[in-house]
Amino acid sequence: MTTAPLTTEHKPVLVVDYGAQYAQLIARRVREARVYSEIVPHTMPLDQMLAKEPAAIILSGGPSSVYAENAPGVDPKLFDAGVPVLGICYGFQAMANALGGTVAETGLREYGRTETEFSGGPRSVLAGAHTPPTVWMSHGDSVTAAPEGFEVLASTAGAPVAAIADDERKLFGVQWHPEVKHCEFGQNVLENFLYDGAGLQAEWTAGSIADEQIERIRAQVGDGKAICGLSGGVDSAVAAALVQRAIGDNLTCVFVNHGLLREGEAEQVEKDFVAATGAKLYIADERERFLSALDGVTDPETKRKIIGREFIRAFEAAEKAIVEAEAEAGEPVKFLVQGTLYPDIVESGGGEGTANIKSHHNVGGLPEDLQFELVEPLRTLFKDEVRAVGRELGLPEEIVGRQPFPGPGLGIRIIGAVNEERLSILRKADAIAREELTNAGLDDEVWQMPVVLLADVRSVGVQGDGRTYGHPIVLRPVSSEDAMTADWSRLPYDLLARISNRITNQVDGVNRVVLDVTSKPPGTIEWE
Ligand SMILES: Nc1ncnc2c1ncn2[C@@H]1O[C@H](COP(=O)(O)OP(=O)(O)OP(=O)(O)O)[C@@H](O)[C@H]1O
Ligand SMILES: O=c1[nH]c(=O)c2[nH+]cn([C@@H]3O[C@H](COP(=O)(O)O)[C@@H](O)[C@H]3O)c2[nH]1
Ligand SMILES: NC(=O)CC[C@H](N)C(=O)O
Ligand SMILES: [Mg+2]
């Protein structure tokens, strides 16, 4: 079920991942050009790629060297398939190599900002560049001779063949990384490729996504009944709003209080979402179910799997109650709507060829014996796209602008076993941190700020002239575009001081507050 195809009418631009740090970014930049894109692993056979009817293909960068043993290659038949191709960095080298050009380790490495020179004038994928762009490089190998039929568009001190084009066959390559934000003219190179090279239109807009998904939901659900896991977060609110548009009253939203919520969360769902949409809401008090299932469990993946399973058990119980409560004790509910996003799938290893970083409760954490058919209208989208769809549907800013909060909640922010006492400590610390962040007016600048309790760590403190032996609280404020990569937020020191002060004064059991200054990668946003 987690390998169900991504669902959209748009023919994808496939980003073939050669192990790049930036494959995700390339896909995002293509979508910023309002063209639909998907990432596929380089191990996918060519006929499978072509079966996806790609509108164009972008070969990503990667750590390998084309002349190394077992270097990932590219099937030369790709270049005869009539699909426009853009090679980037390693992808460019692999393409040049496959088509009879030469690639060598020249000893001239280039990392970071690099000046280019035009070798003919600003044309093809460089059309519109007034001056040769200062680009962003990261390579040790270079294409030393372009394959036959290609024109060299640009060169740099370390890369004699830095950009090539065969406009006739619609094959293009750049040694640099146009997807990186500080690469001058980068987005233009991608758009030149997409619009002029591949002849695509900028059609992937929030409005078109919403219309298309509403149609799809109607086709999938018909006049059947659905329940939607509603968390108060952005994704499920947008998913629910789409489904409500599609099937109206046949949708009931189910909010599960699993006991791992933050202060005030349950109340907020009723207040904001129901007020904005008028949707039917069923509140399931399942605190006992989750806390007893989690009793004594410390391993993060085990916690996630348990929470994923109990969510489904809670939805099943809710479904029974909802059906029984109906006047004519109607038919059972067949569909379960979830606000699953593309990054949830990629990170859970459900994307094709990607590693399992952590099992998101709604993807890798689902039990085998799931009785519902899933409806996941946001499976192909990144968070900022979901927000745009939400705005398109007229959801209020309090919902679409909200910071994400993971479904497993405080359960994965207590490092160690989860119990009532620890939850109560964390809830208090979290409420203080959130309140101070809001008062400082920084909610919009910070993507989210997990507050983590190191429940199995204790340190010595001195409070009220006495010795304490308490737990540390970790603040993890991050900035991000899509949660796939993140940087730690440089919060003002006086704000950090206020949070630290209040937490250590007001939360019993905590005598130390620390700041997590790790980007993602290498750290993930949540600690478990
Ligand atoms: N407490 C809950 N009750 C019911 N469903 C939930 C709950 N928490 C999470 N879910 C379901 O799991 C999905 C994934 O959770 P996730 O936290 O990624 O999304 P979200 O809460 O909708 O949005 P956000 O990322 O902004 O928090 C939700 O879209 C929702 O369908
Ligand atoms: O609904 C969710 N279920 C989960 O199991 C889950 N795990 C992480 N997250 C959220 O996903 C984003 C990326 O988090 P990580 O860097 O920790 O993987 C961050 O926004 C996290 O809060 C989850 N959301
Ligand atoms: N970033 C990349 O794609 C690097 C490609 C190749 N490994 C090189 O060093 O040239
Ligand atoms: Mg959430």
Give the key terms.
528 residues; alpha/beta; Rossmann fold; GMP Synthetase, Chain A, domain 3; 3 domains; 14 helices; 22 strands; disordered N terminus; binds adenosine-5'-triphosphate; binds xanthosine-5'-monophosphate; binds glutamine; binds magnesium ion
Shape call: globular
The Cα radius of gyration reads 26 Å
**Ions, cofactors and other bound molecules:** adenosine-5'-triphosphate, xanthosine-5'-monophosphate, glutamine, magnesium ion
Q: How many extended strands?
A: 22
Counting DSSP H or I runs of 4 or more residues, the number of helices is 14
Largest sheet: 8 strands, mixed
Identify the strand order in the major beta sheet.
Answer: 2-1-3-4-10-9-8-6
Q: What's the number of structural domains?
A: 3
Helix/strand/pairing class, anyone?
Answer: alpha/beta
Helix content: 25-40%
Kindly state the mean pLDDT as a whole number?
A: 92
Our estimate of the beta-strand percent is: 15-25%
Report, as a whole number of angstroms, the end-to-end distance. Answer: 24 Å
InterPro entries: Class_I_gatase-like, GATASE, GMP_synth_C, GMP_synth_GATase, GMP_synthase, GMPS_ATP_PPase_dom, NAD/GMP_synthase, Rossmann-like_a/b/a_fold
GO molecular function: ATP binding; GMP synthase activity
Domain GMPS ATP-PPase: 204-402
Protein name: GMP synthase [glutamine-hydrolyzing]
